[in-house]
Amino acid sequence: MNLFLHEMKMYWKSLLFWSIGIVAMVGGGMGKFTALYGATDSSITGVLDKLPKAFLAMFGMANLEVTSLSGFYGMLHFYLVIMGAVYAIILGAGILAKEERDKTAEFLMVKPVTRSWVLGQKLLAGIVYVLAFVFIDYIVSILFIAKIAPNENISAELGLMFGSMTLLMLAFYCFSFGLSGLMKDNRRASMIMISVMGVSYIGAVMMDLFEGSGWARPFILFKYFPNDLIIKNNTLEPLYLGLSLLWIGVGLAMAFIRFPRRDLHI
Amino acid sequence: MNIFRFELKSNIKSTIIWILAMCLTVYFFMMAFPAYSDNSQGIIKVLKNYPPELLKALGMDINQFFSAIGFYSFVLIYIELLAAMQAMMLALGTSGRELRTRTSEFLVTKPISRWTILAAKSSAVLVILVITNLSITLTSLYAVSAVTKEPFSVTALLMVCLSTFLLQLVFAAMGILLGVTFRKLRSVAPVSLGIVFGFYVVNMLKGIFDDKWIRYFSPFQFFEKYSIIATKSFDSVFLIWSVVLIVGMLIVGFVYYVKKDIHAV
To answer: Which ipTM was obtained for this model?
Structure first.
């Protein structure tokens, strides 16, 4: 329990800074929406409809009706998910690897606990932080949405968006956790995860640009639960639910199978 | 000279990967241009009905906006994101290498001044960034000319690429400054990721925070790509501002490094 509490203490400050970022982004973004929300006449939608899809894709507006509350929030939410992924990667790639990096691994490993126990405590602390990030994001979003559009109810869409965000963040978190447990060189683990995230981001934009690029979806995490489909179908696709669970499972397997038996690099 | 060569050697692999990644990104994005061009006929027709004065006031030149080079400056933000990441990680990793690996003693006890050490490291960073930008520029030239049959201004494209280089230099100078001023540097990637993405998000939300002064603190916004293409010149205020930033951060970094207490492990 001590280790869990220790890890919890280590990260609250950084979460505080991230929360400020979330508030700035949701607040600023939704503030912009008020201008659009009042003026939902056909002139704006008319122009938007005529714009080339690639143009809209660049602003993350492809397939989304940005004059509606859910569409606009969906656009904003995409950037929140990216922020969340960055947070999850930094957290997951650091929480385990920092012991070896900061040469405190000996101190920890000579304690009368198994390595799996250490893993479990650290994993749990990180998951709590991932959930806290999503929770703060959710609360902030709900507050701003209620303030700007008190009469509209999009809680079903919001629930799905945040559900998918939780899954994606956990996938990023668990996979970086596993990778940093697996690899001796923790720098390489975080580099790999950052590349995965970069490819996912640019890949997601490219998928909006190119017609008929649906085949690439399983490889691009940010396209697992695209907000336009969530708004349209009001459901998360089971295939991609399964795939994200698979990433989580692979990440955990890498950590719990390999880390307890590998040599620590001190 | 040894330090210079050492830094080049230790960065060569990652540099090649970065160059490949950025060139591929440029190429693939430009491959989307033909479809974009076809889809934009409708909006061009609509815009042609607007009074030309209005479009001019909005800074929109239809021919420019929907041309290949316009599309290039449009997708450039993603290349700039990668470029900024590379510059930041490279500079922070290079200037903070001894700090991170706790090998400062080894380097500073050599019979060379600290000034020389940091100068050698900075020049290695500069050389790598120049090579990177040459590759991106050539790829861009090739990709733009591959997707369009219409003639385009090579000067404008080169200037847009030059603005990417300036952006990299700003982030590299920032990286060098941070690398020497940090007390502790545990790992390079998360720090760079956080900083670059922070600036990137500010840029993405530029429509939201449309105060003018924010532009001075958001390197991704220093140069308006469209006005570069239209006027074939840089915004002189921001050209000076970015040079001041680069030189200023380097001077502070050098002075700090020469004077700082370097702790033995």
So the answer is: 0.78
